[in-house]
Design a protein that fits this description.
By secondary structure, the chain is of the alpha+beta class. It has one domain: Alpha-Beta Complex (Peptide Deformylase). 16% of the residues lie in helices and 32% in strands. The radius of gyration is 15 Å and the shape is globular. It starts with 26 loop residues before the first helix and ends in a 5-residue tail after the last strand.
Protein backbone atom coordinates (compact mmCIF):
# COMPACT_ATOMS: atom_id res chain seq x y z
CA UNK A 1 0.00 0.00 0.00
CA UNK A 2 1.21 3.52 -0.64
CA UNK A 3 2.69 6.01 1.77
CA UNK A 4 0.18 8.86 1.67
CA UNK A 5 0.98 12.58 1.82
CA UNK A 6 0.19 14.11 5.21
CA UNK A 7 -2.36 16.93 5.21
CA UNK A 8 -1.20 20.15 6.84
CA UNK A 9 -3.00 23.17 8.20
CA UNK A 10 -5.08 24.83 6.80
CA UNK A 11 -6.48 21.73 5.02
CA UNK A 12 -10.22 21.66 5.93
CA UNK A 13 -10.25 17.85 6.53
CA UNK A 14 -8.22 18.53 9.69
CA UNK A 15 -10.87 20.81 11.18
CA UNK A 16 -14.02 18.72 10.93
CA UNK A 17 -15.30 15.79 12.97
CA UNK A 18 -14.65 12.52 11.17
CA UNK A 19 -17.35 10.02 10.27
CA UNK A 20 -17.77 6.85 12.33
CA UNK A 21 -16.94 3.55 10.69
CA UNK A 22 -19.65 1.65 12.65
CA UNK A 23 -18.50 -1.91 12.15
CA UNK A 24 -17.03 -1.33 8.71
CA UNK A 25 -13.60 -2.71 7.86
CA UNK A 26 -11.15 -0.88 5.63
CA UNK A 27 -7.95 -2.86 5.06
CA UNK A 28 -6.55 -0.28 2.64
CA UNK A 29 -7.01 2.54 5.17
CA UNK A 30 -5.35 0.45 7.91
CA UNK A 31 -2.34 -0.33 5.74
CA UNK A 32 -2.03 3.27 4.51
CA UNK A 33 -2.04 4.55 8.10
CA UNK A 34 0.64 2.06 9.17
CA UNK A 35 2.82 2.57 6.09
CA UNK A 36 2.64 6.37 6.29
CA UNK A 37 3.35 6.35 10.03
CA UNK A 38 6.31 3.99 9.58
CA UNK A 39 7.77 6.13 6.79
CA UNK A 40 7.72 9.25 8.97
CA UNK A 41 10.68 9.65 11.33
CA UNK A 42 9.71 10.08 15.01
CA UNK A 43 6.00 9.56 14.25
CA UNK A 44 4.14 7.70 17.03
CA UNK A 45 0.60 8.05 15.68
CA UNK A 46 -1.38 8.99 12.63
CA UNK A 47 -5.10 9.64 12.25
CA UNK A 48 -7.09 9.09 9.06
CA UNK A 49 -7.86 12.82 8.58
CA UNK A 50 -4.12 13.44 8.40
CA UNK A 51 -4.02 11.43 5.18
CA UNK A 52 -7.15 13.11 3.84
CA UNK A 53 -9.72 10.52 4.94
CA UNK A 54 -12.48 11.82 7.18
CA UNK A 55 -13.04 8.55 9.06
CA UNK A 56 -12.64 7.81 12.80
CA UNK A 57 -9.53 5.64 12.62
CA UNK A 58 -5.91 5.92 13.70
CA UNK A 59 -2.70 3.93 14.05
CA UNK A 60 -0.47 4.34 17.10
CA UNK A 61 2.83 2.83 18.25
CA UNK A 62 4.89 4.55 20.96
CA UNK A 63 7.33 1.64 21.38
CA UNK A 64 10.34 3.52 20.02
CA UNK A 65 9.77 6.81 21.84
CA UNK A 66 12.13 7.56 24.76
CA UNK A 67 9.33 8.94 26.99
CA UNK A 68 7.38 5.68 26.79
CA UNK A 69 6.77 3.84 30.07
CA UNK A 70 3.59 1.97 29.06
CA UNK A 71 3.23 0.51 25.59
CA UNK A 72 0.59 -1.68 23.95
CA UNK A 73 2.56 -2.00 20.69
CA UNK A 74 1.02 -1.20 17.33
CA UNK A 75 -2.64 -0.33 17.70
CA UNK A 76 -5.11 0.45 14.96
CA UNK A 77 -8.43 1.60 16.34
CA UNK A 78 -11.74 2.55 14.77
CA UNK A 79 -14.37 4.75 16.45
CA UNK A 80 -12.35 5.37 19.65
CA UNK A 81 -13.86 6.96 22.72
CA UNK A 82 -12.20 7.94 25.98
CA UNK A 83 -14.42 6.41 28.67
CA UNK A 84 -12.32 7.29 31.74
CA UNK A 85 -9.61 9.83 32.47
CA UNK A 86 -7.67 10.98 35.53
CA UNK A 87 -4.92 13.40 36.40
CA UNK A 88 -3.55 16.16 34.24
CA UNK A 89 -0.20 17.35 33.04
CA UNK A 90 1.21 19.68 30.43
CA UNK A 91 3.64 18.33 27.87
CA UNK A 92 5.26 19.47 24.64
CA UNK A 93 3.69 17.99 21.52
CA UNK A 94 4.51 18.08 17.87
CA UNK A 95 2.26 17.17 14.97
CA UNK A 96 2.92 16.19 11.38
CA UNK A 97 -0.04 18.36 10.32
CA UNK A 98 1.49 21.39 12.08
CA UNK A 99 5.09 20.69 11.03
CA UNK A 100 6.85 23.92 11.96
CA UNK A 101 5.52 24.24 15.52
CA UNK A 102 5.36 22.45 18.86
CA UNK A 103 3.01 23.35 21.69
CA UNK A 104 2.48 22.86 25.41
CA UNK A 105 -0.74 20.87 25.70
CA UNK A 106 -2.62 19.78 28.84
CA UNK A 107 -3.76 16.14 28.76
CA UNK A 108 -5.09 13.53 31.17
CA UNK A 109 -2.34 11.37 32.69
CA UNK A 110 -4.35 8.14 32.71
CA UNK A 111 -7.12 7.12 30.33
CA UNK A 112 -9.25 4.19 29.30
CA UNK A 113 -10.05 4.09 25.58
CA UNK A 114 -12.74 1.97 24.00
CA UNK A 115 -13.01 1.32 20.28
CA UNK A 116 -12.87 -1.41 17.66
CA UNK A 117 -10.08 -3.27 15.94
CA UNK A 118 -10.11 -3.31 12.13
CA UNK A 119 -11.77 -6.76 12.25
CA UNK A 120 -14.65 -5.39 14.36
CA UNK A 121 -13.64 -6.73 17.79
CA UNK A 122 -14.29 -4.43 20.73
CA UNK A 123 -11.03 -3.15 22.26
CA UNK A 124 -10.58 -1.53 25.68
CA UNK A 125 -7.14 -0.17 26.60
CA UNK A 126 -6.10 1.39 29.90
CA UNK A 127 -2.90 3.40 29.62
CA UNK A 128 -0.99 6.30 31.09
CA UNK A 129 1.86 8.70 30.51
CA UNK A 130 3.17 9.26 27.01
CA UNK A 131 0.98 6.58 25.43
CA UNK A 132 -2.13 8.18 26.98
CA UNK A 133 -1.02 11.54 25.56
CA UNK A 134 -0.59 9.99 22.10
CA UNK A 135 -4.08 8.42 22.21
CA UNK A 136 -5.62 11.76 23.16
CA UNK A 137 -3.70 13.55 20.40
CA UNK A 138 -4.97 11.11 17.73
CA UNK A 139 -8.56 11.22 19.02
CA UNK A 140 -8.38 15.03 18.83
CA UNK A 141 -7.61 14.69 15.11
CA UNK A 142 -10.81 12.65 14.71
CA UNK A 143 -12.74 15.47 16.38
CA UNK A 144 -11.23 18.17 14.15
CA UNK A 145 -8.85 19.50 16.80
CA UNK A 146 -5.16 20.29 16.44
CA UNK A 147 -2.54 21.03 19.09
CA UNK A 148 -3.04 24.75 18.45
CA UNK A 149 -6.67 24.37 19.56
CA UNK A 150 -5.51 22.96 22.92
CA UNK A 151 -3.05 25.64 24.04
CA UNK A 152 -3.89 28.22 26.68
CA UNK A 153 -1.91 30.99 24.98
CA UNK A 154 -0.60 31.16 21.41
CA UNK A 155 2.09 33.61 22.56
CA UNK A 156 3.50 31.56 25.47
CA UNK A 157 2.64 27.92 24.67
CA UNK A 158 3.53 27.61 20.96
CA UNK A 159 7.13 27.31 19.77
CA UNK A 160 8.88 27.23 16.40
CA UNK A 161 10.29 23.72 15.88
CA UNK A 162 14.08 23.81 15.95
CA UNK A 163 15.04 20.62 14.11
CA UNK A 164 12.15 19.97 11.76
CA UNK A 165 13.25 18.11 8.63
Amino acid sequence: MPVRPVCRIPDPVLKRRSEELVGMSDEELVQDLIDTMDASPACVGLAAPQIGISKRAFALDVSRHPKTTVCHGLIVMFDPLIVESAGSNIGREGCMSVPDLTANVARAQQIVVQGYSPDGAKVVIATEGFEARAFQHEIDHLDGLLILDRVRSLSTDVFRRKNYQ
